[in-house]
Design goal:
Layout: H1 6-11, E1 18-19, H2 30-41, E2 54-57, E3 63-69, E4 75-82, E5 87-95, H3 96-99
Antiparallel strand pairs: 1-2, 2-3, 3-4, 4-5
Length: 100
């Protein structure tokens, strides 16, 4: 598991991110990665409704951002995928209250 810095996350975030939540295909084994983060960082929250809330892709389809809500208001574990290589780069904890 690799927790990305803000700078590393920003490098995978491009203008015109496209919401593909309804059409995204599973290109990586998300839960084998996410479950490790959950067990490590959110072990007391095993009963939380762990699910994918949103999926966004860069307009050039190089990266996919998979948003999983965590047990903190308006905060997500964003799993970043290198789409062409079908590889999970890491994750970033996005706190929208702090961000905006």
């Amino acid at each position: 598991m690799i927790e990305l810095t803000k700078e590393q996350y920003d490098e995978t975030f491009f203008p015109s991110m496209v919401n593909v939540s309804e059409t995204a295909e599973g290109i990586v084994d998300l839960w084998s990665y996410a479950d490790q983060v959950i067990e490590s960082d959110y072990n007391d929250w095993q009963e939380w409704d762990w699910r994918v809330a949103h999926v966004y892709e860069t307009s050039n389809e190089s990266h996919q951002h998979i948003y999983v809500p965590i047990p903190k208001d308006n905060t997500y574990m964003v799993v970043i995928v290198d789409k062409p290589k079908k590889f999970i780069i890491g994750h970033y904890i996005l706190d929208l209250h702090q961000q905006y």
